[in-house]
Amino acid sequence: MAITRITAPSITGLVIPNTSINNASLDSVTALPGGIDVGKIGQVINQTSTVDLSTTSTSYSSIFSASITPSYTSSKILITHTAPTYINLSNTSNMGNIAIFRDATNITTSGHNSSWHAYQFTTNGNGVSIMYLDSPSTTSAISYSVQGKTDNASLTFKYNQGGGQPRMMSLTLMEVLA
Known about the structure:
Elements: E1 41-49, E2 53-55, E3 61-68, E4 76-88, E5 96-102, E6 105-106, E7 116-118, E8 127-134, E9 142-150, E10 156-159, E11 161-162, E12 165-166, E13 169-176
Antiparallel strand pairs: 1-13, 2-10, 3-9, 4-8, 4-10, 4-13, 5-6, 5-7, 5-9, 11-12
């Protein structure tokens, strides 16, 4: 049997009822059709700051933050943070700590409850780079913040400084569609 191709101008007066079309409205789409790749970046939020932290607090203090609203509950958020740092500690048994928080929850815990910590530096110090893949399971707005503290209240932790001067740091949030 031969196959006949019908072109759009040849079809007139045809009405397809909505009940015959699956997911007729974008509001009712529950899954992406096969062939649509996931794992792509949906949105990117980048926040920069020259704010510095100088603290003797043993509790985390927010340095700066950025917010993102995921498109899907299955989305993941890739968080990257970079900054120069300087720490003024008199011994190597105490540390300055930096962690990433999702709203009020420390999500990058390790060691001394942080994702990054530094021992004694007396000059410019080292740069900080943190990368973390979060699975928030929500489509509500989320605030991610960089927070810092010291292990010993008699020691000062200075963050986002190089040579004693504030420098540029960044916090980037990338939605990974999953």
